Amino acid sequence: MLSINPYNKQLIxxxxxxxxxxxxxxxxASFKVWNDWKNTGFxxxxxxxxxxxxxxxxxxxxxxxLITNEMGKRIAEAEAEVEKCAWVCDxxxxxxxxxxxxxxxxxxxxxxxxxxxxxxxxxxxMPWNYPFxxxxxxxxxxxxxxxxxxxKHASNVQGCxxxxxxxFTEAGFPENVFRSLIIGSSQVEAVIANPKxxxxxxxxxxxxxxxxxxxxxxxxxxxxxxxxxxxxxIVLDDANLDEAAKTGIQSRMLTSGQTCIAAKRFIVVEKIAxxxxxKVKTELEKYQPGDPMNKATMLAPLAKRNFVExxxxxxxxxxxxxxxxxxxxxxxxxxSCFYPATLVTNVNRDMPVFYEETFGPVVAFIVVKDxxxxxxxxxxxxxxxxxxxxxxxxxxxxxxxxxIEAGAIFVNGLVKSDPRLPxxxxxxxxFGRELSHYGIKEFCNIKSVWIK
Length: 452
Fold this sequence. Notes:
This protein is an alpha/beta fold and 452 residues long. 41% of the residues lie in helices and 20% in strands.
């Protein structure tokens, strides 16, 4: 496995994939330590999880540089990602005991309740776009619940995978409570099939999610999937257009557009469409390519060259079908991992920039007549991860939020994951929830206890 800097194409490191025997040995070790780890108290686990948060903060600069070198993210975003990981560690260290406290339930018994107990080693199949955050938002609740974690990370961020394992080790977690498996996709089903692995969670593409879900179903294992998105950014006629344009483009350009919950389809009512379009153009002009290690850079490279070719295909095919490029959309280098900040108008539902997930800095601008068409257009998607609604009427926004088919709706704000809120999607965006008290219970045995 090769780790290659997408900005300068320099080789960072090469990693040797585990053999099947090495993988099974790691699983055995994870299961063995779980038998002790599950019996530790919340106070003990919380102490270690707070230490992990401290290790993250103390090493923020070094860890952020690793993220940027391996997958190309802007250094400012990489530093924010490390900080967010520390937050989720502290959050679950502080709140897991209350979240997993026995829940009394009134029945015909003298006493009855639901109790929440760990299920064992959990496999996490994680992507490269948020190589620390995606892992920690799984690991913090899973480990606090008393489970152990096995990480299969994306091949291009193995340095991040090993760094995360080292963070838990440095924080004082017992050996093998969290292990990184240096394996390719070909070994994933065998790991899921291993009887000592009790569940699997994946953040990634539809294709990867479908394969993992099939393997989990075949072997009767619990699965949580967070997959792609084609999030609508809905702008109504009474919206604060300056704020909607600024935040909407910020959302679209996070990680150079390589974010599941980025604003991807800008659905704008006709009455204010022309004015809003100019504001979007102005905001988009700020995103010029540069060295991701420079904090002044606004647009970083995509993680791999083939991702550039994928997004360029989507734009090119849409243009052939009648879409119009208002900004960007032209490749000037056949080797670079940069794709220009691009704005496409005249978009309809038959175009790839509408019905496919666009994983890059491309804005699809769609004009609709009224609120009724807003709902129809927003829901006309195979995906249902997140959505943003912009309106100065909060009641209108709340009512509209209930009609949009997605796992999270943000009114007048940036769609984001937050440890305090459940996170996940519907339709082809996956199933199950991460974060909040819902997420920590996904990998628990919710056991009924009835006493007469």
